[in-house]
Model the fold of this input.
Amino acid sequence: MKTKNIAIIDTETAGGFNNPLIYDFGMVIINQKGELLEEYESLVKESFIPQTMATAYYNEKMPCYYSMMYDGMRIRNWDTIRENVNFLLDSYNVGIISAYNLNFDKNAISNTNAVFGTHSKFLERNFDLLDLWLWSAKDILSKKTYHRFADTHNLKTEKGNYKTSAESSFAFLNDLPNFVESHTALDDCYIEADIMKRLLKRKIKKPLNQMRGGCWRLAQPTA
Done:
């Protein structure tokens, strides 16, 4: 049986946590060695408008997106994005959907599809789910090597907890303490793919279909 590939998704949203509407959708597809097979990005036509973007957490990035559009970034309606994504998932034999804090992206996709879509579901078939935040917190960020790095470079929250974002994981794995994510969907997918590749190389069991909140707690030292 052919080994299933992995799709890593990232979404940038407006509308707040209670009504997340995706305006930037990114995806990379990798194999089980972490090698890149395909990439996809699109702005969402229905939500990439001034009144919706005014509610985006990163709304100051509007000029950045206009520049990206000038350089060729596409803007498509939601149903076209849905069609494109499902075609790529089938074409590349994807069996696992992943994201860093997958619960957030699942909720954003579901809500955006309910508001803008004409189909009841965004994905046309079932997939195993892999929360990269959970996996990173459990097998990278809980280790003393990360804690020493975080102590040295002040990768802690205001409450003194170790940070567990994709930005922090990537910074540690690449020894780039001042690294800052672009917070655009496709670029963030590449960061997450790098983290995934490091974990895949360790040949440790994937925490498939283990969805939980508060993964940051897994990275904190036990008493």
Remarks:
- The mean pLDDT is 95.
- The CA atoms of residues 163 and 180 lie 13 Å apart.
- The beta strands are 5-14, 21-30, 36-44, 75-76, 94-99, 128-131.
